[in-house]
């Protein structure tokens, strides 16, 4: 017995632990939303390219577009142009779109449109980057000034992160004579980034210029320059003006390197205007779209990977254990008597169509009339199988009659009575009649009321939309329920109704 108890405890612990682990993985690692009402941001970005084309030369327009390899994923990308050929190429971690036309003249307008959202998978994408670089050529006073600046930087830094941060801090100290010499009067962000790059190259620290746009609705903007350096594991991002580390969450990396955002051959006066707007979408729907538009598969092996019609069936099926758990608690802990375990759950499923109040009335009427017929058939001394056949046929006729009269009276909900499981009603009538004969009408009525109460509570719990979504999305919760059911299987204590029954006896024993 002790070995059996230990085995049961290990089994319960394993099931509960596995259920919690799988659910936590889905929520914390895969980022699947916990509630159906949860929404996520959906960004629409338009980049409008305008330029003046030369009538004599072919036109070739190139513009960087986001590589989308960091925290965002594209749901839709389109290139809108009139009579232009379009191609997209990858080069050195960047993506560049090329519009080309044999002939064009006058003012030209091209559009790039991107719909994106946050990347759902919480798993980090493995990144690669250089850990060493060659020094840039520098001579004369500039070399002396650079070495003078690097000496304290080396002294006050311990790794790549602190070295880059200290370098940015020193270059932004415009009162330093060495900095003044290197900047030569140009204090623009771009020029300061060049001096930072020069100093880091002398120390063989890799550095890249990254150009970002801020995801901010209804605000015109130009790309913002940031710097990044690879420390062997991750890219570290720095603001070249403030030394702030870490790229803000609302920044979208557009391109890297020294090249301009857009270049035009056969044209002039090229400008790019960014327009953004933000909307919200149901989080789980967005997760499905992410799965469809990327290689992500964190929903592929969930119930959302099933066909839609099958999903609707499983939304009902996964709630049956919840209903069974309600019956288990009502019977084993509270002591309510019902017609078995599964009969109340099946009746609860029928209430999904008839609604609770109308379903109770229909169940009561059909069961009462069926019991009357069963009592009459008992006097005919029929065998069980013919008797059940007659009762079943009577139930069908009764259901048809109720549906017909309900339709004539304009009670369309009465038509749903046909969805009641006829066999369940027939067996319920048969079992109640046997209980009536063996233990009396009072006990049969108590069992019938207990069955209706249990079915009603199960229906209410099984119909909670938040619970249906949670169990369907995180079916590993059912493993936790199994563990609880196993634990309940060894419960031998008093039920609440028994405490009430024995209350008088306990008072008598105390006296």
Summarize the structure in words:
This protein is an alpha+beta fold. It has 3 domains: 39-131 and 209-281, no CATH class; 137-205, no CATH class; 305-500, no CATH class. It is 49% helix and 20% strand. The chain has a 4-stranded antiparallel beta sheet. Strands 4-5-2-11 form a 4-stranded antiparallel beta sheet, with no helix packed on it. A 4-stranded antiparallel beta sheet has the order 9-8-7-10, with helices on one face. Helix 2 (140-155) crosses helix 4 (177-183).
Sketch the topology as an H/E string, one letter per element. HEEEEEEHHHHEEEEEEHHHHHHHHHHHH
For the biggest sheet, the summary is: 4 strands, antiparallel
Domains (count):
3
Order of strands in the sheet with most strands: 3-6-1-12
Q: What is the general shape?
A: elongated
Helix-and-strand structural type: alpha+beta
Strand content: 15-25%
Number of helices: 17
Name the poorly predicted regions.
none
Strand segment count: 12
Radius of gyration, in angstroms, nearest whole number? 37 Å
- How much helix is in the residues? 40-55%
* Span between termini: 38 Å
If you average the pLDDT, what whole number results?
81
Transmembrane segments: 6-28, 314-334, 354-373, 385-407, 413-432, 467-487
Domain 7 transmembrane helices usually fused to an inactive transglutaminase: 260-505
Domain Inactive transglutaminase fused to 7 transmembrane helices: 25-184
Keywords: Membrane, Transmembrane, Transmembrane helix
């Amino acid at each position: 017995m002790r070995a059996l108890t230990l085995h049961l405890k290990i089994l319960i612990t394993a099931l509960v632990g596995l259920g919690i682990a799988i659910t936590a993985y889905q929520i914390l690692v895969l980022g699947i939303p916990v509630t159906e009402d949860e929404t996520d941001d959906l960004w629409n970005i338009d980049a409008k390219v305008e330029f003046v084309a030369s009538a004599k030369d072919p036109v070739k327009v190139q513009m960087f577009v986001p590589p989308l390899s960091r925290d965002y994923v594209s749901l839709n990308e389109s290139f809108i142009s009139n009579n232009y050929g379009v191609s997209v190429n990858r080069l050195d971690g960047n993506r560049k779109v090329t519009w080309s036309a044999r002939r064009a003249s006058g003012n030209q307008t091209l559009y790039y449109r991107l719909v994106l959202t946050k990347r759902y998978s919480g798993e980090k994408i493995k990144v690669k980057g250089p850990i060493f670089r060659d020094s840039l050529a520098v001579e004369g006073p500039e070399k002396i000034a650079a070495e003078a600046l690097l000496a304290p930087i080396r002294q006050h830094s311990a790794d790549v992160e602190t070295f880059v941060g200290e370098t940015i801090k020193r270059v932004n100290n415009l009162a330093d004579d060495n900095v003044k010499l290197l900047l030569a009067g140009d204090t623009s962000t771009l020029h300061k980034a060049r001096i930072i790059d020069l100093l880091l190259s002398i120390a063989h620290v890799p550095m890249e210029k990254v150009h970002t746009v801020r995801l901010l609705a209804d605000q015109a903007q130009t790309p913002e320059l940031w710097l990044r350096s690879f420390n062997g594991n991750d890219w570290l991002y720095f603001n070249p003006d403030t030394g702030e580390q870490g790229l803000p969450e609302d920044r979208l990396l557009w391109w890297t390197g020294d090249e301009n955002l857009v270049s035009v051959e056969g044209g002039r006066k090229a400008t790019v205007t960014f327009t953004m707007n933000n909307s919200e979408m149901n989080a789980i729907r967005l997760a499905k779209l992410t799965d469809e538009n990327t290689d992500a598969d964190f929903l592929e092996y969930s119930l959302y990977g099933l066909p839609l019609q099958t999903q609707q069936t499983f939304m009902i099926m996964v709630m049956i254990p919840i209903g069974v758990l309600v019956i288990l608690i009502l019977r084993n802990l509270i002591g309510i008597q019902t017609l078995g375990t599964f009969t109340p759950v099946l009746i609860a499923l029928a209430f999904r169509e008839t609604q609770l109040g109308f379903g109770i009335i229909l169940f009561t009427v059909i069961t009462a009339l069926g019991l009357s017929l069963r009592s009459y058939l008992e006097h005919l001394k029929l065998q069980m199988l013919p008797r059940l056949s007659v009762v079943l046929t009577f139930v069908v006729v009764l259901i048809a009659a109720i549906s017909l009269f309900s339709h004539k009276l304009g009670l369309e909900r009465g038509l749903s009575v046909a969805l009641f499981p006829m066999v369940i009603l027939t067996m319920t009538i048969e079992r109640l009649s046997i209980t009536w004969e063996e233990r009396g009408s009072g006990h049969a009525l108590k069992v019938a009321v207990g069955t209706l109460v249990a079915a009603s509570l199960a229906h209410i719990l099984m119909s909670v939309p938040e619970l249906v979504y949670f169990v369907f999305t995180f079916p590993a919760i059912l493993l936790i329920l199994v563990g609880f059911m196993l634990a309940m299987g060894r419960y031998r204590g008093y039920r609440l109704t028994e405490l009430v029954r024995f209350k008088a006896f306990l008072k008598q024993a105390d006296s």
